[in-house]
Specification:
The protein has helices at 16-30, 53-78, 102-126, 141-146, 149-158, 167-178, and strands at 35-38, 85-89, 129-135, 189-192. The protein is of the alpha/beta class and 199 residues long. The N and C termini lie far apart (47 Å). 30% of the residues are buried.
Amino acid sequence: MKDKIRVLIKADISDENSVIEMYKNIESKFGKLDGLVNNAVYDKIFSIEDLTAEEYRKELDVNVVARWMCIKYAIPLLRKSNMPRIVNIASRLGTKPMDSSVAYCTIEAATIMLTQCCALELTPKYNIKINTVSPSMTLTPFAKKSYTDEEIKQTAMKNPSKRLGEVEDTVNAVLFLLSEKADYINGENLNVNGGILLV
């Protein structure tokens, strides 16, 4: 078994030229792309009245425009794959509003629609399958820094599964959607949240 090649490419995905250069690097090293996972995110909590146009545009650029650019410029490399896949990472807040998160909620809803539009257009043309994974609060290092242990415990108790998401929960969903087992799943939003949308 050959050793897997890992390449780290630094890119500002809110900058179009940087995205183009990123794919040039990928093409020079691998020649094609089998899967794209759009996982960059930027979010700050603002009420409707405190949110500025500048801040809203910044969140749009990183969370929606950047995802669209990453999809657009990935298409030529994905077309060279026998099983091209795209997975956008959104959030449960793309389908359930939350106080003081108007920018993030609407942006994640836009990501879900971006997925659906791309599936409708890209699958008939190039057989590129594209889906969304929407986690709830996940115990990442950032989340552990942002919330106290008591806040994390209280949030977990509100979930029917009585726990918060682990990174592996989202990873497993993404790996499934990238695999041949998900060949007939397209344009969907897979919620990975332990059932929190039910309460």
